Amino acid sequence: HTHTQSQFSNNMKVLTCVLLLAAAAVVAARPRHDSAMNRGLFNFLAREGRDVNVAAPPDQWFTQRLDHFDPQNQDTFQQRYQTNATFYRVGGPVFLLLGGEGPANGIWIAIDTAIMEYAQQFGAMVVQLEHRFYGKTHPRPDLSDASLRFLSSEQALADAAAFIADLQARLGSNTKFVTFGGSYSGALSGWFRLKYPHLAVGAVATSAPVLAQLNFVAYHEVVAASLRTTAPGAKCTDAIAAATQILQQMVTSAAGRATLVADFQLCDKSLESALDQMNFFTNIASNFDGIVQYNKDNRAFEGGVPPPTMDDACAIVTNSSDVYKQYVAFNKFMLDAQKQTCFDISYNKMIAGLRNTSWDSDAAGGMRQWTYQTCVEFGYYQSSDSTQQPFGNMFPLSFSLQQCKDIYGIDGPNINWTNAYYGGLDIDGSNIVFPNGDVDPWHALSIVKDLSPTLTAIYIHGTAHCANMYPPSPNDVPGLKAARVEITAALGRWLRG
User: Fold this and answer.
1) Residue 20 near residue 99 (C-beta atoms within 8 A)
2) Fewer CB atoms < 10 Å away: N or C end of the chain?
3) What are the residue numbers of the active site?
4) Which tens digits make up the pLDDT trace of 160-205?
């Protein structure tokens, strides 16, 4: 996770099973935004020493309606998808991987990812469908607020329904479909089976935040709990909390702010505005968030710097009794790992980047779109409003809602409608499996206990975001291997039924 993204970088972490996040244009070079799913996969492949430059299936295009719910609007757009029929047997099923908050990267269906292993077992065709307004799927000429009216989870599910109906007509009416996804697209996968049960016989909904929540305070509580599983244990979070208290005191005086500007290498040499101060504390917390969410799953940063893990973070912050000195050292460690020359916490710069409506902007990589979706549908704001976390109280819920207002002029999401529409944690339906890792903070908004014999949870000890979607590895923990077996069994039941 880049540490310059403010609260919304946190929100983007959702997605990141597929590959998520980067953000507003600022001084130093940034990793491009990607979905959570994509980011996790590339971290995994780098860690395993795997080649990521594989030949991916060619892009194909499907003519999709701009607005499925307005019969008077006849506008269409081209939606990108990719197909791998290597293992397809005539009459076999189609496994549809739903895109999330980033580009639909063809590598997902080109290597031995979990979905391709399942395809080999069941003779399935695998198709990946890019989410409207992400990657190369551009329904409108720009990303203006007027254009983003057509960006919603409901429209994305209707896109998938129209796509499946068309493909089924070509392959034969007996063709069975199963949806897959991770992070936000994991939620979409579960919701698709809920809303269109006649079009998909089942759904795998990995690391799926199915509960829309305005103030996602549990996020940092889980981050803290995960950090405490390292060797230093509670000493790690105690050191973070003690350092945070020192920082919160320093920021109240001119001399303290000047010291922080120098010690934390702030790009704009200023920490005067309250919004910059909130961003400063958010971005420091985000460094820990990203490490936890992708623990042991981080890409090797360019130049061969070892990817940071929870063990690395806790070793640094507990390395001496001078907690302030160690916090500064951790920040420098993250700047070096991400090849950043300075720590960017400018609120105005971040907002200006996210207000850019051009498809050529940095924010068009997914940050502007996903931030919009959190502001209208989901919330997911990882605030500092819980006392059961070590990151202080400097980024309250109001800070995230201020961003919704400053970027789009809207007050915040209607999460009550979202949860009424999809069911939240009381999701109904059948033939949905919900894999989650207990290290992953997003499990707090997902299904971690069986709801019925056909709405089942797989809760994996020791894994982070979307881990069950990656290729198998000799390093997989036992629960991860068991999860893949369980998913295979569920697929067999749905396809036989």
Assistant:
1) no
2) C
3) 183, 440, 465
4) 999 999 999 999 999 999 999 999 999 999 999 999 999 999 999 9
